[in-house]
Design a protein that fits this description.
alpha/beta, 5-stranded parallel beta sheet, 12 helices, about 45% helix, Rossmann fold, about 15% strand
């Protein structure tokens, strides 16, 4: 709606992950570097954690697109409290291995045959497990056993674990000591720093062709940081509401007063962080 009023090619502040809008703030760049390091190692697990909305899925989307021209087959698995047997079937399905009516031993054999074939073809396999904090202990152990599939000491499957901060607690629990020992890199995605919010917002606007309409009062950016905790998805929510308000009222400038209105609405809906505005803001 507002993108038409302001002449933008697309909506810049959608809440769903879209790696086309990727902004490499400091925490994001660090996590990406860790993943690149792990890929070069071609073994074990890499763990990326962060609060909801901090960009974990966007990071993976960018990574998978970068891998499109390399000899790596990547499968993305979103977990919702899977047990070991269900996890194995999901992994098989993600890599195109048929699992209907097949027992566990046969399914493992089929996965092993596929990974060995890819190895002969100089192709690597990467499994990305999203929302991994919901995995059971048995499912996590099943993942570890999959990394035991090797040829000449070279693992044929590498696994990236993405999840909320609870994933770190899961990995550090005594039953998963062997998984913990196979973590080759780990990074925690923080929100944006206060001095990164303006660049983030402007970047997303420039991707869709923003040329200064609406004009934006720079004093709004510290306020957006305060009431979003620097979480990109919350920043998007605030900015989307700001642009919607501007378009509905047919205005071509966004002010501090607009932020006051939007934040009050979002806090009434329990969708914004922070306390109420002070008189100094």
């Amino acid at each position: 709606m507002y993108e038409l009023f302001y002449g933008l090619r697309a909506e810049p502040f959608r809440l769903s992950p879209d790696h086309r809008f990727c902004f490499e703030h400091s925490a994001y760049a660090k996590a990406r570097a860790y993943m690149a390091y792990a890929l070069r190692r071609a073994e074990g697990f890499v763990m990326i954690t962060g609060r909801p909305g901090t960009g974990k899925t966007t990071l993976i989307g960018e990574l998978v697109e970068d891998l499109a021209h390399e000899s790596i087959t990547a499968a993305n698995l979103v977990c919702t409290q899977l047990q070991a047997d269900d996890l194995l079937k999901s992994v098989a399905y993600s890599f195109g291995v048929g699992s209907f009516g097949v027992d566990k031993a046969e399914l493992l054999q089929r996965i092993t045959v596929l990974l060995n074939r890819w190895h002969r073809e100089k192709r690597r396999a990467l499994l990305v497990v999203d929302e991994a904090q919901d995995l059971s202990i048995s499912a996590m152990e099943e993942l570890r056993l999959l990394t035991n599939i090797q040829v000449g000491g070279q693992p044929l499957l590498q696994i990236f674990l993405l999840g909320q901060p609870e994933l770190r607690d899961l990995i550090l629990s005594p039953p998963l000591e062997q998984v913990h020992q196979r973590i080759v890199a780990a990074s925690h995605l923080e929100g944006l720093a206060a001095d990164e919010v303006e660049a983030y917002v402007v970047h997303r606007l420039q991707v869709v062709g923003w040329s200064g309409d609406p004009a934006i009062d720079r004093r709004i950016f510290p306020l957006i940081h305060k009431f979003s905790d620097g979480v990109p998805r919350r920043i998007n929510l605030i900015c989307s509401r700001l642009f919607l308000l501007g378009s509905v009222e047919e205005r071509h400038a966004i002010s501090v007063e607009d932020v006051r209105v939007v934040i009050a609405e979002l806090q009434a809906e329990s969708l914004a962080a922070g306390s109420a505005f002070s008189d100094e803001e």
